[in-house]
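Internal tracking record. Fields below are filled automatically when a chain is submitted to the structure queue. Please do not edit lines marked as system-generated. If the sequence contains nonstandard residues, flag them in the REMARKS field before resubmitting.
Queue: standard
Priority: normal
Entity type: single polypeptide chain
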Amino acid sequence: MLNFTTFLKFYAKYRNNKLSKLNSALEQEKQLLKLVKIAEKTKFGIDHNFSSIKSVKDYQNNVPLRTYEDFWINYWKKHFPRVSNITWPGTVPFFAVTSGTTSGNKKYIPYTKEMAKSNSKAGLDMLIHHVTNKPNSKLFSGKTCFLGGSTNYVKEAEGIFSGDLSGISIKTMPWWAKKRTFPDENLAILSDWEEKIEKFSNLILKEDIRAISGVPAWLLIFFDKILENTGSNNLIEVFPKLEMIIHGGVNFTSYRKRFLELLDNSDVDLREVYPASEGFIATADRKYGEGLRMVLDHGIFYEFIPFNELEKENPTRHWIKNVELGVNYAIVLTSCAGCWSYILGDTVEFIDIKTHRLKITGRTSYCLSAFGEHLIADEIEDAMNVASSSININFSDYSVGSIFPEKKNDLGGHIYVVEFDREIKTNEKELFAKELDKRLSERNEDYESHRSAGFGLKAPQILAVGNGTFSNWMKKRGKYGGQHKVPRIITKQELFEDLLTFARLNR
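SYSTEM-GENERATED OUTPUT FOLLOWS
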């Protein structure tokens, strides 16, 4: 196989030089005006007078913020599946099928040829950051394993297909990348996750694997199966030339220690990415914990709404030119797939506004606030990790939801369903809950005031569950494998009750 790594290194020098000179604000306005010009004669462009837009300010005056539901009801549903010249020129050839983590509502996200190119460019940025940090890389001397969803499509109409985003991405990736991927299309089409894990874990042993990509929880299941099949103690014994593990979709903090153990303290690159069905947003360009660098020149324009203003009639609409450090923003994007000021549903915080590096803090719907405590995912994840460190125990997964008063003078509170990596003793569980409560109070003033003297909120409860509980619950719900993620914060009470019932019956 021809080693493309040399070409990648040459491109990395060119790209890094370009990135070092990039004026983020000018580039973002350029991207926006280009998108507006292209879509000027679509229905959406006519409805919002795109021909008059000459600046970011003009655009924000003409185009209001919208959710997926707004686009679906007002623009896409009536024409689906043949959505032609509605919010983007031409006919949309693909729809990425996704659903809310805490709900089963299916969504059809437009995926255009331009979006495929945009994703490829962002993916290439991820690779150039890898070879920049590892100048002796021989990444393309072998293959990359993609542990994603099925590449099988649903034919919605002639020439129009829907399916899993990861499957669409594999189908539409450049030819040179396809030749360097595992599995082949005959295997990638598999949708049964258990069958996929079984077959992949055996066939991959015949391959020269240099990189592996997937969602952390499912990667761990995959890795455990490989080690079981080979009798090995770590991944380096199985894949001695492994250079990189690409992960995304969830907070990695609680998984990192387990990954490092599996990699036997090697120098394998644990590189985080931030892809969404609506666009590839950012990728780690430095070491773990130093944030993800946004891709600003690939057909996406970003806006940022302070999370506490999201429900206002006219929230402040920041963009790259005027974002601030330390503010929890709801991220909004305008894309080359015909999304315009689309509220993505994620929240982020900038940790560097020179190179525009951010961290993901949660979801706009992922706010635990049944009692006015306003806890966000980042605060809960941090507190869980502080608590686990205090008793030297790890957890593989967890979910938290609210419990409500059942009698007079009772208080509401939160139950944390936690899958620890070993059996937890009663005194350890009590200390875990105490440290969790303490850290949440340190991070969040609203929570602290509600917990003050136990006046407005009960202390957190911990429901410890056995190994495999969450994967079995996800399987029961038909959400096993692929891009499905265990919901960390569950605000839908029916879903949380289902988890509690399942967890208690299977302890």
